[in-house]
Every structure is written in structure tokens, then in C-alpha cells.
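TASK: fixed-backbone design
INPUT:
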């Protein structure tokens, strides 16, 4: 959002940012699906969401990107705490295949 005045001067730059964000969102989502470690899944889902935020920046929806950043930070913090609780409850096991 800080570079928005420069991006607004070039439709090519906006399109580039949008495409990079879309590729990031999809690729990181796919990588997250194939992971077995619960912490890696949470980390890849965060990277995927950052891709969605980048798409919003490329679409000139700066307030939506900042809103998504803030809400994502709150619910991801809770998700990390929850996954830590699950890991502790499973005897420090992080492999989701062994969780039932």
C-alpha cells in the first residue's frame, strides 16, 4: 500500500503485482495441501493468504488488503495457539497422519 502512488501510474505494474499474487496464492496453497507437518501447513496457508493480499494490492483494493492482513493476523495467532495445544496433547507429535 505504501507504493500505491507509483503503482497507480502503471497498469503494467498493477497487472504484474496481481499475477504474482495469484501465482503465490495458488502455489503456496497447493504446497500446503501436500504437507504432513501441522506447523508447515499453517505456514503455507499464511503464505497463500499473503498472495491473496498481493492480489488485492494489484487490483488497487488497498483497504481490502490491509483489512485482510489485520483479520488474518488475529485468526492465525489463534490457529497457532490451537495447533500448539494439539501438538502438546498428542505428545509433541506434529505429523498430522498420526493424529487420527
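OUTPUT:
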Amino acid at each position: 500500500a505504501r507504493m500505491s502512488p507509483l503503482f497507480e501510474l502503471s497498469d503494467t505494474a498493477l497487472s504484474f503485482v496481481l499475477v504474482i499474487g495469484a501465482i503465490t496464492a495458488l502455489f503456496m496453497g497447493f504446497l500446503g495441501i501436500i504437507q504432513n507437518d501441522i506447523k508447515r501447513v499453517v505456514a503455507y496457508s499464511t503464505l497463500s493468504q499473503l498472495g491473496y493480499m498481493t492480489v488485492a494490492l494489484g487490483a488497487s483494493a488497498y483497504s481490502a488488503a490491509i483489512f485482510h492482513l489485520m483479520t488474518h493476523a488475529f485468526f492465525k495467532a489463534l490457529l497457532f495457539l490451537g495447533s500448539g495445544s494439539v501438538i502438546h496433547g498428542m505428545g509433541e507429535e506434529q505429523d498430522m497422519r498420526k493424529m487420527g
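COMMENT: The chain has one domain: 4-98.
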